[in-house]
Amino acid sequence: MIACISPADTNAEETISTLRYADRTKKIKNKPIVNVDPAFALVESLRTELAAAKRQIASLMNGEQPGIGGCAVDGGSVNFASSELMAERERLAKELDDAHDEVRRLNFCLAEEVAEKSHILEQLLSARQAFESLKQRIRTAFE
Questions:
Q1: What does pTM read for this prediction?
Q2: Where are the alpha helices (DSSP H) in the chain?
Q3: For residue 11, what are the contacts with CB-CB under 8 A and spacing of at least 6?
Q4: φ/ψ bin of 8: left (φ > 0), alpha (ψ from -120 to 50), beta (otherwise)
Q5: What is the CA radius of gyration of the chain?
Q6: Domain Kinesin motor spans what residues (predicted)?
Q7: Is residue 66 classed as helix, strand or coil in its secondary structure?
Q8: For position 83, what pLDDT does the model report?
Q9: What band does 119 get if pLDDT is binned at 50, 70 and 90?
Q10: Which of 96, 97, 95, 65 lies closest to 82 in space, CA to CA?
Q11: Is 71 helix (H, G, I), strand (E, B) or coil?
C-alpha cells in the first residue's frame, strides 16, 4: 500500500490518520481459498470411490483375493462366510414369512372381534328399544 502524507503542520491530523490506516492495512493477511462447490467435491469423492471399487472388481476378476486392509484371504474362508451369509439370509426370510403369517392371523382375529362387537351392539340396541317400548306401554297403562 502506498500512503501519501503531507509534511505540513496543517495536515498533521490527516497524516496521522493516514499512517494509522496504512499500518492497519499492512497487518491484514489474506488467505486465498479456492472456491470449491460442495456438489463438485461430492462428485469427485464418489468418482474416487467408484474407481477404487472398479479396481477391486478387476482384481477379483483376475483371480486375486484382496482381503480387508490389503491382507489376503483364502478361498475357504470366503466360501464359509458366503455360506454363512446365505444361511442368515434364509433364516431372516423364514422369520419374515412367519411374521407375515402372524399378521394375517391377527388381522383375521381382529375382523372376527369387530364382527362380534357389531353383533353385540345390535343386540344391545334392540334390547334397549324393547325396554323403551315396554316402559312406554307401562306409562300408558297407568295413565
A1: 0.38
A2: 12-27, 38-61, 75-142
A3: 5
A4: beta
A5: 44
A6: 1-28
A7: strand
A8: 83
A9: very high
A10: 65
A11: coil
